[in-house]
Write a structure and sequence with these properties.
Layout (H helix, E strand, L loop, with lengths): L3 H10 L1 E5 L5 E4 L16 E4 L11 H7 L62
Antiparallel strand pairs: 1-2, 2-3
Length: 128
């Protein structure tokens, strides 16, 4: 959820340009509102996240718009269509109970396999 300052700035200067599939709302401002902040001479662009603010919740098509890579609103571009090979969004699970822990990790439930003995340490030949 956005803080009160962002919500007030959005109410006075924001123009909504679209939503994404996660419920995030994207805004732009005129050149006069905040023109000396961020990228001088460019409109200001921001997102109001649905739920917790997590940068990884911005889909790739909106990421390009947010970072001025394109001026095309994603809903009107070819990037708005999802390809068959694209996976659904998965939040960053690092630091949660659902984070990936490989076998042998000290906090993992599984046990690490014992060394098999197929490793032979290198020894230098000192007879030459």
């Amino acid at each position: 959820m956005a803080n009160i300052g962002t919500l007030l700035f959005t109410a006075f200067f924001g123009k909504k340009v679209g939503d994404d599939s996660h419920g995030n709302k994207y805004y732009r401002s005129s050149l006069s509102a905040g023109k000396n902040v961020g990228r001088p001479g460019k409109e200001r662009r921001w997102v109001i996240f649905k739920g917790k603010a997590e940068a990884s919740k911005i889909p790739p098509e909106w990421h390009g718009w947010m970072h001025y890579s394109t001026d095309t609103i994603p809903e009107n571009s070819r990037f708005a269509k999802k390809n068959s090979w694209e996976k659904d969004y998965l939040p960053n699970l690092t630091g949660t109970d659902y984070s990936y822990l490989p076998s042998g990790h000290k906090e993992s439930i599984g046990k690490r396999d014992k060394a098999t003995g197929d490793y032979v340490a290198w020894k230098p030949n000192i007879n030459n």
